[in-house]
Design goal:
Distance between the termini: 40 Å
Strand content: over 45%
Radius of gyration: 13 Å
Largest sheet: 6 strands, mixed
Structural class: mainly beta
Number of helices: 0
């Protein structure tokens, strides 16, 4: 079992930046793909970004390309989501998720491929 804890959310003005962190409870986290998803009120959960265990594969949703960057520090069992040029439509609860499969070459954008989920962190972007 892998426990995930997100942090770094908050209130920011449009155009601002935030960095989210997802820290895992186990060192095996470093061998798993990790993704960020988000869910706004009244909307379905949507994919944001993912990163393979090696960091070599990093798919992004079209809506965040060029503004968000996902990265990881395997020595610290942590994945980051650097968010810049934030827009009001980025307001949502952000969740990180980890795949149970280890050493996969690619990171999936599909929520059902992820087995472990954090509790989420709120990001609110004011206009």
């Amino acid at each position: 079992q892998v426990q995930l804890v997100e942090s770094g959310g908050g209130l920011v003005q449009a155009g601002g930046s935030l960095r989210l962190s997802c820290k895992a409870s186990r060192s095996s986290f470093s061998s798993r793909a990790v993704a960020w998803f988000r869910q706004a009120p009244g909307k379905e959960r949507e994919f944001v970004a993912a990163i393979s265990w090696s960091g070599s594969n990093t798919p992004y949703a079209d809506s965040v390309k060029g503004r968000f960057t996902i990265s990881r520090d395997n020595a610290k069992n942590t994945v980051f989501l650097q968010m810049s040029s934030l827009k009001p439509e980025d307001t949502a609860v952000y969740y990180c998720a980890a795949d149970d499969v280890r050493f996969a070459f690619t990171a999936s954008a599909r929520a059902f491929d992820y087995d472990y989920w954090g509790q989420g962190t709120q990001v609110t972007v004011s206009s």
